[in-house]
Amino acid sequence: DGGITQSPKYLFRKEGQNVTLSCEQNLNHDAMYWYRQDPGQGLRLIYYSQIVNDFQKGDIAEGYSVSREKKESFPLTVTSAQKNPTAFYLCASRTFQGWNSPLHFGNGTRLTVT
Amino acid sequence: DQQVKQNSPSLSVQEGRISILNCDYTNSMFDYFLWYKKYPAEGPTFLISISSIKDKNEDGRFTVFLNKSAKHLSLHIVPSQPGDSAVYFCAASDHYGGSQGNLIFGKGTKLSVKP
CA-CA to B46 of 20 to 30 Å: which in A59, A90, B88, B92? Predict the structure, then answer.
């Protein structure tokens, strides 16, 4: 079955450590996205990539970094510079066959930093 | 400032009745609107969408209505079922404007359908 896999589902880190969240898709989608969800908040865009080897900052990119070396993979690194890293992180992808295509989401990674 | 607003954080409905979830937006350039459903600890799942050239789109029990002059859209669920209990997010994008086709989400409305 095609889909988006995020791993791990739960992640715990000490403050000051960088951590990388994995996102893999086998939908052959061109574009991939990282969102963050906090309680009572909508989904806020961190980074996105429309093609391999290219990515753009979203609304809240500070303290995060990404890479897009392969079409299927879009890992997100939460650096020690991110002031409030504890959140639920969602990866998504979509095709670019016409602009009106919905995002497909993975099941998320809950990151807790103490 | 929020471009997509869901002013009701929660909604409670009796099973079998209609659920109406509302969403307002401020950017008149938005041309594509979507609704997502989300269960706790899971990713959102796409429910239904509508482009700005239409005012209604229907898919089974779900209907989305778009009122461009009022910058308002709504999701109707008829009849509501307990399995519909989830958080519903409204999202919008403008393909030729500042968001570059990226989706902008509201804060969500938590729907509870009581048996």
Answer: A59
